[in-house]
TrEMBL record:
Gene3D superfamilies xref list: Tetratricopeptide repeat domain, Zinc/RING finger domain, C3HC4 (zinc finger)
Protein name: E3 ubiquitin-protein ligase CHIP
InterPro entries: CHIP_RING-Ubox, TPR-like_helical_dom_sf, Ubox_domain, Znf_RING/FYVE/PHD
This protein's encoding gene: LOC107426788
Pathway: Protein modification; protein ubiquitination
Length: 263
């Protein structure tokens, strides 16, 4: 039996149906042009990609591919902040539409690469600024030392000792300042027990073990429905997002962008 909605659609003039579907048609047209540029020329015209993706997301702001490709285009122009923003939008939309889809993993890989590139760019800038400042401070201390030596001839040992202590204190201060940009090890509690990679979308089991969502779901599919650590029976419905760990990971990555580097 036809519903009211189906009778309404059937009764609409063909022109109205075309106009209703036009935004979706145009969005796919813009996204399709991106693929055409890549295939026909053997390379991607990122300027055209950015232009078409902006039009696509204007027509459908929930377009995963639109935000994804726009993010990649912005990264090509080294617009790291805006590129990351678009990739994060695409990742959120992708997880909402199909958490197990290949696009989610692909977007995360590009987002991690973008975050690392952003950190590397800013880290290089900070390192240069710190080194320049350190050299200026050392020069100022040296000038002060020479002046004090000339004015306090009978206290050379005391002046020299004080000068060395000041240089050591200066070195400690700048060493601490550079620690945030020095790669070390990611804490174990922020890493999946199966892959040992930093968490992206952590979920916790009833036994209290936390896994990366895509990894434990793949374990269910390839191995079986049980906890890899405790070996207890486990179903997908029992997995709960571990928001505390997710927030801890985000805080850590915000302070240590080097951890985004993918092996």
């Amino acid at each position: 039996m036809a519903t009211f909605a189906s009778r309404k659609i059937a009764s609409e003039p063909p022109l109205m149906l075309i106009l209703r579907q036009l935004p979706c048609v145009l969005m796919f047209l813009y996204i399709g042009r991106i693929v055409f540029f890549a295939i026909s020329s053997g390379s991607i015209d990122w300027t055209k990609v950015e232009e078409d993706c902006r039009k696509a997301v204007q027509l459908d702001n929930n377009s995963v591919k639109g935000h994804y490709m726009l993010g990649l285009a912005l990264l090509q122009r080294q617009e790291y902040a805006e590129g990351v923003k678009e990739l994060e939008k695409a990742l959120d939309l992708g997880r909402g539409a199909d958490p197990k889809g290949y696009m989610v993993e692909e977007i995360w890989q590009e987002l991690a690469r973008a975050k690392y590139m952003e950190w590397e760019h800013e880290s290089t800038k900070r390192t240069w600024e710190l080194q320049t400042l350190k050299e200026a401070c050392e020069t100022a201390l040296e000038e002060k030392y020479i002046l004090e030596v000339s004015q306090l001839e009978g206290f050379l040992d005391e002046v020299s000792t004080k000068h060395m202590e000041q240089l050591e204190s200066l070195a400690r201060v700048f060493k601490i300042a550079a620690e945030a940009d020095t790669p070390t090890e990611v804490p174990d509690y922020l890493c999946c027990k199966i892959t040992l990679d930093v968490f992206r979308d952590p979920v916790i089991t009833p036994s209290g073990v936390t896994y990366e969502r895509s990894v434990i779901l793949n374990h269910f599919k390839e191995v079986g429905n049980f906890d890899p650590v405790t070996r207890e029976p486990l179903e997908e419905s029992q997995l709960v997002p571990n928001l505390a760990i997710k927030e801890a990971v985000q805080a850590f990555l915000h302070e240590h962008g080097w951890a985004y580097k993918m092996d």
